[in-house]
Amino acid sequence: MHYLCKRYTCTQYYLMEKVAPTATTPRVLLIYTGGTIGMIEDPATGALRAFNFTYLQDHIPELQRLGFEISSIQFDPPIDSAAITVDLWIRLAHTIGENYDKYDGFVVLHGTDTMAYTASALSFLLRGIAKPVVFTGSQLPVGRLRTDGKENLITALQIAAERQADGRAMVPEVCIFFDKYLLRANRTIKCSADQFEAFASNNYPHLAYAGIHIRYNEKHIYRTPEGEKADLEVSTRIDPHVCVLKIFPGITPEVVQAVLSIPTLRGVVLETYGSGNAPTDDWFIEALADAVKRGIVIVNVTQCESGKVEMGRYDTGIRLGQVGVVSGFDMTTESAITKLMYLLGKGLSPQEVGVEMQLSICGELTQN
């Protein structure tokens, strides 16, 4: 299925910093999609609303001291994080693809509620990427006295511009920077609604830590394996006909059947207990088996914030495997759902999607 953004447009570029450019001066593109970081409080109602992003310079004058070129794009209108749809993912991927050769790195400002979903999706849509795409945002608007947005943005920009001694990007992958930690995008979950440390990567080490210095965890940074195509390939196809089915004690046959009988359904991320366990009632197993026979890809991930699915460990997991449910290993739900959309959008058969879901495309899972 082919989705192109028709609702949202982009403003012109705004030069955030004027420096004397040289052949080695890094150039970073800042993309503002919306979110708390670019909001201002309405004095009458106290509600947060988006303001013209060019005013960010007034709140963070330090941007003028970074020593590299920063241009910006603002999505118009800005999108609330809860209103994110797949067409924005496609628009973001296109925006980065269209500007890929002009910039050394990209910073995407995004609302925190769905940042892990969007960032995970971009990690799959931007295949062969060799430059950093750093998502960040804030829990408080940048105009607030105690805002976390200022440090998040400045550090994200520095990471996006960072190079190795040989000139290659320090972090050539899609990631999230928030409250001192740089995390792989497709390993990240939002873990807190009211703490500055809002994101966590429980199954994979952080890529960098920003203290007095930014210290990179280089052995855990993803780089395109030797022999694989390193040119950027922007995917423009994604299939949203998927859902998440979370198992809970007392779940009824009617609920499961209602979900699995959705006419357009093509994929399910099944959130199970612990290391991949689920009810073994005949009605439940039969419902899953019937869905798999109808071509629905069912991927098993754990409800736990850390750990992984081991479908051969207990009898319940073994039975799921026997009827065709595939393992999601240690993928997050956000990563599994966006990867499933991406693979289904490629036009692969259900069997091919099932195989690909169990392989690492860009560091989103650990099989062993």
TrEMBL record:
GO terms for biological process: aspartate family amino acid metabolic process. Residues 241-353 form the Asparaginase/glutaminase C-terminal domain. SMART domains: Asparaginase. CDD domains: L-asparaginase_I (cd08963). It holds the Pfam family Asparaginase_C. Its EC number is 3.5.1.1. GO terms for molecular function: asparaginase activity. It is an enzyme of class 3 (hydrolase). PROSITE patterns: ASN_GLN_ASE_1, ASN_GLN_ASE_2, ASN_GLN_ASE_3. Keywords: Hydrolase. Belongs to the asparaginase 1 family. This is asparaginase. It comes from Porphyromonas endodontalis (strain ATCC 35406 / DSM 24491 / JCM 8526 / CCUG 16442 / BCRC 14492 / NCTC 13058 / HG 370) (Bacteroides endodontalis).
